[in-house]
Amino acid sequence: MAQVTIIGGHGKVALLASRLFNSQGDSVTSIIRNPAQASDVEKTGAQALILDIEHASTDELAKAFSGSDTIIWSAGAGGGDAARTYAVDRDAAKRCIDAAALAGVKRYITVSYYDADHPEVFGPEDSMYAYAQAKAAADTYLRESELEWTILGPTALTLQTPSGRITVDTARKTAAIPPTSRGNVAAVLVAAVHSPDTIGKTVNFHDGDTDIQNALTALG
């Protein structure tokens, strides 16, 4: 049984993942900013922890992470304001990585997006520019840490019924890329926690033809 802490616990993927974790006996603490969201989180079987990661210090975050086996970053500013995007998706993300190390938590999984290694595809005039720059910086910071990291890069998210099957792209694609159901992202998250084959890997994927566990095992 794993002790999992999810940062951004009220997101659609996080809520789905919490239910899956709890169904298989893992324990989940979900960090949220808004106390009004606590009941939604607790309905999944997770414990809600109220903490504003945008303003929390590294020490405060480390205290929240204490006792966890795995930290999952599934948070985000939600776009719109570039300054807040950098504050959350880059700066707070980096502090969480530092806090995991400070708390002695080795395993760290972040939900990024497909092909996030190439933020240059978005110019300064693009609405995705700040987000792309922030995610690339946070992902690079995680890779350079001493944590046992995994970066998940799903394609555009949908609310389609999850198939339990994905395709992992080992080569970059720039056109005609299928979307990914949020349910499949949640299932990949849960599987990755228990899949050492994903450690030190960036996993770009979308809905596809291979059973999720088999797809992740093939990464080893």
Q: Could you explain the architecture of this structure?
A:
This protein is an alpha/beta fold. It is built from seven helices and eleven strands. A nine-stranded mixed sheet has the order 3-2-1-4-5-6-10-8-11, sandwiched between helices. Strands 7-9 form a two-stranded parallel sheet. Helix 1 (12-23) packs across helix 6, helix 3 packs across helix 4 and helix 4 runs parallel beside helix 5. It starts with a strand and ends with a helix. The mean pLDDT is 96.
Beta-strand fraction estimate: 15-25%
The backbone outline, from C-alpha atoms, is: globular
Number of strands: 11
Write down the overall mean pLDDT. Answer: 96
The residue ranges in which pLDDT falls below 50 over 5 or more consecutive positions are: none
Strand adjacency order, main sheet: 3-2-1-4-5-6-10-8-11
**Main sheet properties:** 9 strands, mixed
- Gyration radius (Cα, Å) is 16 Å
- Residues in helix, %: 25-40%
Distance between the termini: 22 Å
Helical run tally: 7
Give helix and strand order, one letter per element, not per position: EHEHEHEHEHEEEEHEEH
Structural class: alpha/beta
